[in-house]
Amino acid sequence: MARPFWLCAMITAVSALVSASFSIIGLIGPSGHDAFARYAASRSIALFIAVCMGLRSRKGIAALALVMTLVQGFDGIIGALAHDPEKTYGPFVLALANVAAIAWLLRALRRRPGTAI
Fold first, then answer.
1. For a tag on the chain, would you pick the N or C end, based on fewer CB atoms within 10 A?
2. Is the dihedral of CA 105, 7, 67, 97 positive or negative?
3. How far apart, in whole angstroms, are the C-alpha atoms of residue 37 and residue 42?
């Protein structure tokens, strides 16, 4: 059980950290005074903190992994609409890695007797 949990937690944390890093870089850049950049940064930093706090709960990490999958999926769609391959493929790869990790974690949770999801 430990291996699926820690892999899901690690991928989710990396996903949240990447999202927070890019939003902080956006704040430092020329559009840093844009309100949308500030909103994106506050969302991303809050999600990263929540992932760090959720490291004690299997179900918590699964829920946060699902949220980060959605965030990265939407970021990938935004990158595709902007015709920017770097902002498209990177988020989609992180979203797919999170989906695989969630599936492995949930399968491991189901195999444990007496564990309800």
1. C
2. negative
3. 9
For residue 38, pLDDT beyond 90: no
Distance CA 89, CA 85 (A): 6
**Global model pTM greater than 0.90:** no
Show Cβ contacts of residue 65 under 8 Å, excluding neighbours closer than 6 positions.
Answer: 8, 11, 12, 98, 101, 102, 105
Residue 110, C-beta contacts closer than 8 angstroms, at least 6 positions apart? 117
d(CA 67, CA 105): 15
CB atoms within 10 A of CB 35: 7
